[in-house]
């Protein structure tokens, strides 16, 4: 009986840890199932359109019933603001993000997306929404962490380096369908698209904080952005892809990747992240982010036999180290803000830790 009680207590204590590890596993699967569907022939912009349609249908009842009391009236001005917010958070960066995944690799994308936090921090400092004390150890950590993360991304994008030799025969071998020159051109294009999407998302986080003050209903706002993003992606996809066959989805990997992204990521993952944030706080949630990078790199190299370059390993290491330095520096902001009344600040929107949570929600949208 005592052992059973001890086991129950341990499960309750480490339940948030297990949930966050499960969240990172879900994100890891997302990278590979979408890459598989792209290799199967699914167009990234068609995927984004269908996925957000599924996500909107799935999230609508939760947003409608759970936030009925706190959802403010939607005016025309607020609707236009949410539409622009959707363009910055869904329409543009999502299409660029998944196009980059098609042109590069899951390892590169999972590593590069971590720079959204330092990029947003830089923009916030320029706009005087964040403080930076270069004489304080935590201020130095913020500055150095930002530089290290950005240098890591530049390393991954511009320096491939030697190919890491396979230690054993992979379980599933991915065969390259392009020549070296074609691969290089697509890698450069994919790198540009990925970095550009991170910049757009960084501006989106700043604007999202302002919009949430006027529309403080997160589930409803996410649903609105997903619905409007579906329309925006549809217009873009129709302009780019006019072949009707591109919109036909069979009972195959394409369908499963869309359902997985719309239901598991947009629904289950968002709920778990919000629950863990309430239980343990934003810092706890953000420290698990780089775990996805590690799992994606491990599976891509050891299981799928993906070509791994030394530049990607070095760059990813710099990105993760810089991210943790920045988060450590940001963790002290609450200690420095002694004397400020709770209602005068909003920790959910002012900290870079919450930016990482919002970044994951954006990928989940």
From TrEMBL:
Disordered: annotated span: 338-365
Transmembrane residue ranges: 16-33, 45-66, 78-96, 108-127, 139-159, 187-207, 219-240, 255-276, 283-303, 309-327
Residues in EamA domain copies: 18-136, 189-327
Protein name (Swiss-Prot/TrEMBL): WAT1-related protein
Primary location recorded for the protein, binned into one broad class: membrane
Family: Belongs to the drug/metabolite transporter (DMT) superfamily. Plant drug/metabolite exporter (P-DME) (TC 2.A.7.4) family.
Biased composition (Basic and acidic residues): 356-365
InterPro entries per record: EamA_dom, EmrE-like, WAT1-related
Gene Ontology cellular component annotations, sorted alphabetically: membrane
GO molecular function: transmembrane transporter activity
Keyword annotations: Membrane, Transmembrane, Transmembrane helix
């Amino acid at each position: 009986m005592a052992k059973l009680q001890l086991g129950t207590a341990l499960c309750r204590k480490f339940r948030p840890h297990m949930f966050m590890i499960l969240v990172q596993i879900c994100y890891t699967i997302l990278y590979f199932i979408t890459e598989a569907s792209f290799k199967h022939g699914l167009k990234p912009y068609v995927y984004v359109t269908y996925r957000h349609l599924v996500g909107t249908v799935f999230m609508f009842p939760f947003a409608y019933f759970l936030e009925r009391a706190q959802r403010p009236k939607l005016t025309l001005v607020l609707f236009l603001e949410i539409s622009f917010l959707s363009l910055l958070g869904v329409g543009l960066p999502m299409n660029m993000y998944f196009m980059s995944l098609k042109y590069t690799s899951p390892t590169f994308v999972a590593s590069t997306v971590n720079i959204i936090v330092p990029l947003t921090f830089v923009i916030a400092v320029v706009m005087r929404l964040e403080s930076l004390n270069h004489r304080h150890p935590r201020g130095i950590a913020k500055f150095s962490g930002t530089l290290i993360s950005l240098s890591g991304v530049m390393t991954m994008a511009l320096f491939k380096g030697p190919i890491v030799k396979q230690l054993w025969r992979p379980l599933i071998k991915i065969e390259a369908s392009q020549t070296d020159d074609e691969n290089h051109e697509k890698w450069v294009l994919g790198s540009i698209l990925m970095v550009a999407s991170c910049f757009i998302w960084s501006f989106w986080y700043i604007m999202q904080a302002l919009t949430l003050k006027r529309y403080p209903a997160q589930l409803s706002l996410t649903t609105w952005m997903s619905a409007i993003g579906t329309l925006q992606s549809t217009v873009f996809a129709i302009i780019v892809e006019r072949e009707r066959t591109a919109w036909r989805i069979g009972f195959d990997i394409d369908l499963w990747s869309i359902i997985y992204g719309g239901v598991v990521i947009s629904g289950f993952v968002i709920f778990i992240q919000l629950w863990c944030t309430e239980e343990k706080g934003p810092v706890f949630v953000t420290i698990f982010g780089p775990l996805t990078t590690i799992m994606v790199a491990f599976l891509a190299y050891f299981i799928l036999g993906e070509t791994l370059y030394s530049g990607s390993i070095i760059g990813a290491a710099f990105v993760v180290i810089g991210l943790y330095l920045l988060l450590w520096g940001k963790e002290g902001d609450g200690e420095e803000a002694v004397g400020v009344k709770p209602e005068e600040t909003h920790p959910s929107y002012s900290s870079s830790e919450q930016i990482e949570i919002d970044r994951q929600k954006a990928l989940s949208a």
